[in-house]
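Problem 12. The chain below contains 299 residues. Write out its predicted structure in token notation.
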Amino acid sequence: MQIAMFKYFLAVAETGSIRQASLALHVSASAISRQIQNLEHSFQTTLFDRSSDGMLLTEEGRILALHMQRTMREMELARAKIDDIHGLTAGTVRYATIEGVVRAWLFPAIADFQRTYPLVEFKGRISGAEAVYQALENDEVDFGITMYDDLYPDIGIVEKFTTPFQAAMPLQHPLAQRKTLHLEELLPYELTMLDSTFHTRRALDKSLLRMGLNVRIGFELDHIELIKVHVLQTGNITILPDYAVIHEKQHQKMAIVDIEEDEIPFATTILCVRRGRRLTRAAEEIIKKLRLRPITLPL
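Solution.
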């Protein structure tokens, strides 16, 4: 019963809504509401601020949520160890990742893994690079995939991958037949770009500033797949990491052109974990699989 109470509380904390938690857990809203009230009565404090916009944790609620997450994590580790005794690889693996690697690399790797280990479940979140680091530091996930940043000493790097940037455009674009491009050649054309929360955009902006160039960015968004849809609909150009356009290149859906390396230096994408986090056997195994399935070429 206590475990169920923990799940209810954490689901409301995550979704900000009893109704959304009810839908996610397939439990009646009244049952969840009752358990929240019982918790508040037990701790003699208000755990959520309630408003028309939803339910937000109070400071007391955040403290309780942190301890509950650790308790649930310990329960998962215990279950995984018991499964290991019986020769099973099972349990839940949690991850956080940047969007670009998902379609061509991460999802196929998970699908292959689950064919071998069907009892393993995956729960992931797709976000910007900084949010991946935060999820790791807060001990919310087993592993992360993100762009390298040396500002996070508690993060251990499992593998590094070189990451060139490429220009993507419709097949009929005037620059579509080029093998490589200089940034100044983009000046006559309008770009569709990721916003400045993405490493890719910051790398481009830094290069443009260094070279004294001012390109036209007519549309920006925080979603790679929709960026590509917009490019195909408008005839614009975008710049993305190479692994984010592998599918389009292989299936000839877009023209993919290299950019001179000395103009936008290669980035580094990393597979990483929080130092000191205890991993289940399932998490260790999928990390091993990912290391053997390079995005481009390991450094």
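Discussion. The two ends are 49 Å apart (CA to CA). Students who got a different answer should revisit the alignment rule from Section 12.3.
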